[in-house]
């Protein structure tokens, strides 16, 4: 579960091609980071995988199934939005339960899954609070909880920490890495922050203007950047 393959995937908005055809393979259980400067197409690529945008060409396969056959809800992927996407009038418990309610799960299942997610995220004592009564880090954990209860084949994060201050970002980075160790689920994590990429990734995909400049482990990219752009971006000595 959670194996994702992009074959010649491209995306244009009107006449503007923001992603020229690209190929990429993501293995089951991998923590993959898409990194690159603002406007390079990271969010677009993630949204194509999630099915929130249609590809202009090529194909995305999720666990061997062509995504053209799979509407977003059936892809088994959970997008984690920034914490401000929470419902302010609902309790933490209801926020986390929301996708299960939408899927018409029964109450016993909802309670079990919400409790489990809350335990994983250390939110058990906060279930009755509203988002406004939580710290930034706790709010971000609630947003992650809402993804966990769906038991997705892969988690998709789009710059989830960009709203948080520097100290909290470091903390949440560790928490998300720990979550990956616990769940062993595929995670795709988008960031413009090379430090996040280097510290969190099994595999880094460096993007520039919609093109993949290099794919490799943090160590591979650091030791053998393919070009100046990668070297400069990763902060390699070369
Ligand atoms: P990133 O997430 O790396 O900052 P994006 O994927 O948001 O980059 O954007 C990549 C490029 O595609 C940018 O030039 C952006 O202006 C353009 N773009 C993104 N979404 C749309 C859209 N819905 N319509 C037109 N252009 C878009
Ligand atoms: Mg973006």
UniProtKB/TrEMBL annotation:
Residues 4-234 form the ABC transporter domain. The keyword DNA damage does not apply. GO terms for cellular component: ATP-binding cassette (ABC) transporter complex, substrate-binding subunit-containing; maltose transport complex. GO terms for molecular function: ABC-type maltose transporter activity; ATP binding; ATP hydrolysis activity. Keywords: ATP-binding, Nucleotide-binding, Transport. The keyword ATP-binding applies. Belongs to the ABC transporter superfamily. This is Polyols ABC transporter ATP-binding protein. It comes from Thioclava atlantica. The chain holds residues 1 to 238 of 331 of the full protein.
